[in-house]
Amino acid sequence: MVLSNIIPLSKPDIEDSDIDCAVNIIKSGFLVQGKAVKSLESDVSQYLNIQNCSAVSSGTASLHLALLALGIGHGDEVIIPAFSFVATANVVELTGATPVFVDIHPESFNIDETLIEGAISNKTKAIMPVHEFGLCANMPAIMEIARRNSLAVIEDAACALGAKFKSKYAGSFGHFGSFSLHPRKAVTSGEGGLLVSSSPELDYKIKVLRNHGIEPDSNTMNFIDAGFNYRMTDFQAALVSGQFSRIEKIIEYRTSLATFYLDKIHNRSITLPHVPPNVRHAWQSFHILLESEDIRNRLMEYLKSLGIMTNYGAQCIPHLSYYKNKYNHHAEVEFPNAFRSYTSGLAIPIYNKMTMDDVLRVADAINKFN
Ligand SMILES: *Cc1c(COP(=O)(O)O)cnc(C)c1O
Question: Candidates 91, 104, 128, 182: which one to mutate for ligand 1, based on the most atoms within 8 Å of Cβ?
Fold first, then answer.
């Protein structure tokens, strides 16, 4: 297989002009959190139409800080979907709180909101829905459940920058919305995260905690809390700012790639992703379902032999060793939809440098698979 013929699962969309922005900052010698971070935060706030944004060192750091700012810790419970990237649960564990898993809708891969109230106890402090693969969860319903039960909501919108539910952006419904800038996401700073909130008080806590507990914008170094170093560097912010200015185009192009897949893949053993009405999918991943784990693994090997890279979409977290052993979960019976999505699901290539010919090549290969 000639290397140039390989279709990767994902690839960042970084232009020379984005690199120039980062290089200019590096040449200036001012590398840590500064003006470029501030300017990225203000661009993101404006775009999402939400008052406050804090840039941090990763999507995981962002979720961790959101939980801490809400005072969540030992003895508390946080409701999360059973199907997500493992970081969604790890951050809850790291605060000392307990993740309480809820199964997902099999067709959207998002938390099944009708199961949330059954998982609420007198220890529940927050719900952390995930907008899986860039598709916004049913936020109006989740916010209503949270309101009825006096719970906080942190949206894990790691994959969903620019996604919408009706006309409202994913990440702008909850007390916090958290985004990742990892290279697998639509825009990237290498490692990085963004945390948005409509509450100035909550955002203030984030700005303190991300920077060693130092009072923000103070000239004297006033240490008012025990904080982290979860800062983003200025050259990372500059690298992402240029990409972010193209976010609408980036999503439009990903949508056209996904639409082409939906049109071209015809294979009865494959369930294609379902797009509900009234949403804008950000298509971080294109996730298909096979009839069994065995067939999924065979398809993966077959595509690899043709130079087409794929991977599992996300994990059934209560089935992973640490969570399974600690909480004695039997994921296959407790969370059947999450279990099936983990064992029989596959993310196929989608990225902005992908051409329509690439999509056709992947679709043709999948159509010939039996
Ligand atoms: C990528 C991702 C994260 C973690 O983001 P990092 O920036 O890699 O720390 C968390 N949750 C979900 C759903 C993700 O997809």
Answer: 182
Beta strand 152-156 pairing with 176-180:
parallel
Give the separation between CA 329 and CA 221, rounded to whole angstroms: 47
Query: Mean pLDDT for each consecutive 10-residue tract of the chain (370 residues)?
Result: 79 96 95 96 98 98 98 98 98 98 97 98 98 98 98 98 98 98 96 98 98 90 95 98 96 98 96 95 98 98 98 97 98 98 98 97 96
Q: How far is CA 347 from CA 9, 21, 66, in A?
A: 8, 32, 28
Exposure string for 76-111, b = 16+ CB within 10 A, e = fewer: bbbbbbbbbbebbbbbbeebebbbbbbbbbbebbbb
| Sheet strands (E) in 61-213 | 77-81, 83-84, 98-102, 124-127, 152-156, 164-165, 168-169, 176-180, 193-197
- 76 close to ligand 1 (CB < 6 Angstrom): no
- What is the rounded CA–CA span in Å between residue 213 and residue 119? 34
Task: For ligand 1, say whether the CB of 59 is within 6 Å of any of its atoms.
Answer: yes
Three-state SS at 231: coil
8 Å CB contact between 360 and 264: yes
Pairwise CA distance, residues 266 & 369, whole Å: 10
Q: Which amino acid is at 236?
A: Q
Q: What angle do CA 7, 161, 266 make, to 5 degrees?
A: 40
Residue 347 · residue 311 · CB < 8 Å? yes
